[in-house]
Amino acid sequence: MFQGDKCIAIKDDTNTNGVQLQTWTCVDGAVNQQFLHQGWSIVTLPTEFISWYLHPGLCNDLTGGINTL
C-alpha cells in the first residue's frame, strides 16, 4: 500500500554490502522497492528485520546506529 507517491528503494538496484537506500517515486512492480518483513506484524528489534525481496539474505542497517536524517 502506498502512502503518498514516495517509496524506499535500493539505490541502483545493487545487491552488495553497504548499498544505500533512497526515497524515490513509487513505481508499481519495481523490484528495488519491494521488501519483506521477517517476523510478526510489527518489527520488534533486534530479533526481527526488514529485507529486500530479491535478496532476503541482505538486511537493512543504520550506519553507526544513527536513526535520524
What does this structure look like?
This is Ricin B lectin domain-containing protein. InterPro entries: Ricin_B-like_lectins (IPR035992). It comes from Mycena albidolilacea. The chain has 69 residues and is an all-beta fold. The chain has one domain (6-63). 0% of the residues lie in helices and 26% in strands. The protein has no helices and 4 strands. It has a two-stranded antiparallel sheet. It has a two-stranded antiparallel ribbon with strand order 3-4. The radius of gyration is 12 Å and the shape is globular. The mean pLDDT is 80.
What strand line-up does the widest sheet have?
1-2
Tell me the radius of gyration: 12 Å
Q: What is the number of E strands?
A: 4
Euclidean distance between termini CA atoms: 24 Å
Summed up, the helix count is 0
Instruction: Give the DSSP E fraction (strand runs of 2 or more residues).
Output: 25-35%
Mean pLDDT figure: 80
Total domain modules: 1
Q: How are the SSEs ordered, and which strands pair?
A:
Elements: E1 6-10, E2 21-25, E3 35-38, E4 49-52
Antiparallel strand pairs: 1-2, 3-4
InterPro entries: Ricin_B-like_lectins
Protein name: Ricin B lectin domain-containing protein
Brief rundown of the structure:
This is Ricin B lectin domain-containing protein. By secondary structure, the protein is mainly β. The chain has strands spanning 6-10, 21-25, 35-38, 49-52.
